[in-house]
Structure prediction request, 1228 residues.
Amino acid sequence: MSQPLRLSGLVAATYTPLHADGSVHWERIPQFVEDLIQRKIVGLYVLGSTGEGISLTTTERCDVAAQFVEAADGRIPVIVQVGSECVAASRQLADHAESVGAAGISAVSPVYFKPDSVSTLVETMAEIAGGAPSLPFYYYHIPSITGVALNMVEFLETGAERIPNLAGLKFTSQNLFEFQQCVEWNNQQMEIFWGVDEMLLPGLACGARGAVGSTYNYASSIYHRLLKAFAEGDLQEARRWQACSQLLVKTFLPFGPRAAQKAIMSMIGLDAGPCRWPNRNLTPAQYEQLREQLKSIGFFEWQELTP
Amino acid sequence: MSQPLRLSGLVAATYTPLHADGSVHWERIPQFVEDLIQRKIVGLYVLGSTGEGISLTTTERCDVAAQFVEAADGRIPVIVQVGSECVAASRQLADHAESVGAAGISAVSPVYFKPDSVSTLVETMAEIAGGAPSLPFYYYHIPSITGVALNMVEFLETGAERIPNLAGLKFTSQNLFEFQQCVEWNNQQMEIFWGVDEMLLPGLACGARGAVGSTYNYASSIYHRLLKAFAEGDLQEARRWQACSQLLVKTFLPFGPRAAQKAIMSMIGLDAGPCRWPNRNLTPAQYEQLREQLKSIGFFEWQELTP
Amino acid sequence: MSQPLRLSGLVAATYTPLHADGSVHWERIPQFVEDLIQRKIVGLYVLGSTGEGISLTTTERCDVAAQFVEAADGRIPVIVQVGSECVAASRQLADHAESVGAAGISAVSPVYFKPDSVSTLVETMAEIAGGAPSLPFYYYHIPSITGVALNMVEFLETGAERIPNLAGLKFTSQNLFEFQQCVEWNNQQMEIFWGVDEMLLPGLACGARGAVGSTYNYASSIYHRLLKAFAEGDLQEARRWQACSQLLVKTFLPFGPRAAQKAIMSMIGLDAGPCRWPNRNLTPAQYEQLREQLKSIGFFEWQELTP
Amino acid sequence: MSQPLRLSGLVAATYTPLHADGSVHWERIPQFVEDLIQRKIVGLYVLGSTGEGISLTTTERCDVAAQFVEAADGRIPVIVQVGSECVAASRQLADHAESVGAAGISAVSPVYFKPDSVSTLVETMAEIAGGAPSLPFYYYHIPSITGVALNMVEFLETGAERIPNLAGLKFTSQNLFEFQQCVEWNNQQMEIFWGVDEMLLPGLACGARGAVGSTYNYASSIYHRLLKAFAEGDLQEARRWQACSQLLVKTFLPFGPRAAQKAIMSMIGLDAGPCRWPNRNLTPAQYEQLREQLKSIGFFEWQELTP
Prediction:
């Protein structure tokens, strides 16, 4: 029941569409899901960093999760990110996600108070994972945001004993030394999602199968080509597509990664609306500047490629 | 209406008493408040870092705030800390605190997503402060936890224009260079609470009037003596009491500041219960070890001093 | 012989005057020393961060140290900073400083490889201090630059056993919690120089006697007034002069602290020349801009005050 | 003349052999070089982090560099790392290396004072590289040690204009996003050595040709197998050898990377002696413990493999 999902391919870290006033734009969720299915996305990771889960109220998080599950309608699995500063609230979110039919649960560490050791992190995650005991649970490792830079191999070792439904990690760090060890840990017992889009190729070289990311929402075509080249052993071709991905990321990063990517979604007809505070949105001038830069790197032509 | 409170003396950053199972121990709140009033505490700062506000659910935060206000019953002002990762939730908490009779509002920055500039922080706080427009609002600056190390003089400059009820800061940083500038800013327009107990004396030297801290809950007697000596110009005597405070802090820090201080509360008959995850509680052996160490530095005799 | 110097008052962290081509401007050293003596400076701390010791060759460091000692000619003591990445070289520099008549030695930690513990730092400093066994040795603690943030109370405890000529610290950190403990350690056995000019007042409140700093080279008059007011128990007046100091620091910091202060020296007729790479010098336009800002805060009038 | 060396394969970051008293053990240098040539190492990178260049005196650095060049005797190229805190000294070291026949120069950034921008770093490196104008110059990027985390693509863009002999980078960071961009920059104009041994495979996937590292001194056999598997397109086999490398690194890291690796050298008959302070050496008990652990992972059998 709580076995790893064993996804292979691109998992979209979905955006939460908002109205201009910051409220959730519910009607857009089914539209986004349909688009992602057409893009041959193999799973959805909702309410993570990309989905601004942490910036939504508990009620909104429940409703957004339910809406994505309903829209996916069993065609692709939905993993719900339930991490927050309050472990009790996260456990309730896990319970709710299980009740509405999520396929998996994931949680980031509390950040305000930081676990002081691997065992504290494991206890904290055990509390959350226990809210959805029938579902596979993935710890969301993103030390650049959380500042929780504990060793993930040790987390798996301790966690596998303590958390019955521990299924793996969402691994968002450049540390491929640690990533490869996690992938291979205990005969590949765990499912380790790779979470750095602009380093998908080296992630694959180290054993990644499923990758969760934000750019897969709107640039899936170049990553499908990367995956295909890699599968065929053509690393030079794979590097070529990875370079496109890197050019894309390099282009939007200076505008603020959250808001810039929501702007990109709008530019291709998938209006995700603004970000919530404390993420600052692009000014109209910045929006146009970003569009021009994306045009000059050929981004909009990638949309024409077959998925 | 939303003028600074202009408190002079010790403000307790209150503990949120919990049962052994982690649920809120409501009956203890009035007991704590009576004790603090007897200790000549001049105000309460509830649901901050000490009160684990961020580790409680939104409902619990509302109820704890209301309970403290009711227990204080107008005898001393209650400032409610409403900061969280979700600005919308924080604004609701501010609105609720205003409705139940809080005397002031305070908020820490979101931490998961960090404001990228002073102006973004100001916009974020404006959103929260707007939930309680009739109350003075204090931004809670604690960069060692939040990683938001923006310049507070610039915050006051920008914030005074944009946030009608901005009344000052809770300043928890060793940076007395910045603190003194904030105190003196615009003819001392703002109220800057000093938040580093083990550095109260240098804080006073730089112009602090009100100080918010956790150790004032259980070691107020030494700080009252420090304040008295300082008022009388006897810095040597003030240093002597500050040294007691430093010895105390040095003693409990290795046990983890949150859980160790809750243990200290219990040791003097004010059972605050455990901390919530991810703060790890003391083992019984650690509890005894801490008690022995406190005994050897004379801590328990300080309780016998007149407040 | 290697007793603490027990200096009380302002110790100048001297500049190393350079020619426009970056070579040492030897003739300026005596001029600087005379000026500092007129300013009632009670000691010289040469080749520290202000003196760019680390950016000079070993030969240059020897010669600069000797030159300052000769110019001081016994009127005020000279402490020579000998820290570097290479412990063997630092030991040689200590030996040389002793041989030319320095009054004390100081050393910063290696930075490229960082000591992994207090005991490693103590061993490293023991090696250096052993080069000048007849002179008092002061460890130079400046964690904002070195990243070596080990506890200084523990350093004193371990170091006092292991380093016969350990005399104290140059303490350049805002952490007055730790500073006060160091001052009071073992019945004030050690001499702890306070190293944060813009926080001199709170340093004094915590027990500082001697203070080492760069701004004392050119703004001594305001600090002498601060010291006088403090000695007379007039903290409000002391804060007023500290505020001048803070305004000064706030003004030059955005230009880069090293190069901006060398520019300030030139503006008052003490041409210190440029900094060496990797410190970037001010453009002529920046130089004029800084001069204008200093004029508007009244800096140049401070020069007219009696020392 | 100053064209990139275009090395393909393993470049050893050599150890500087020391006597027990810390002085350089000159006789060992030729022995080490012969061993490395037998291991099919394609180049030597001397006096970097592994070689403790920064912990040696300027005179020692000159002599060690000359000794390595003489021992290599033109059979494999020697790159000399000349970075230090003092740019003038580094320039002299570059000049000396050129005069004794080094094949290339490399320099790390000053660390005590950090360049405030890419252009400042470029100016600083231009000054150093100018000391050996006939040799290719490689900036040594190792932000985990230096704290200088400037963007390397921008460094290449600015540096290519300003530094005539700029030939590339030694890139020691997990950031393969940036690495791949550097490799591909301006039609692969630059030579970017990959510097993370435990991530060699993902480095190769991103386009690495030459790799500089410390473990190649004593575990070359597993890396040659990794390289062969990669060249044949057998990524699974390559991962298997990378896993061996990761197990090795994971084993010695807790003992302190510098001293532990010098101990490993001794265990296989290449006595490198101790490290200098502030690197702490292994106790005899730790040495035995490390040997046991290495035995249990099969390390000593790797020495039997044909290179």
Remarks:
- The first strand of chain B starts at residue 9 and ends at 13.
- The two ends of chain B are 32 Å apart (CA to CA).
- Chain B touches chain C at residues 174-177, 180-181, 184, 196, 198-199, 201-207, 233, 235, 238-239, 242-243, 246, 249-250 (CB under 8 Å).
- The first helix of chain B runs from residue 28 to 38.
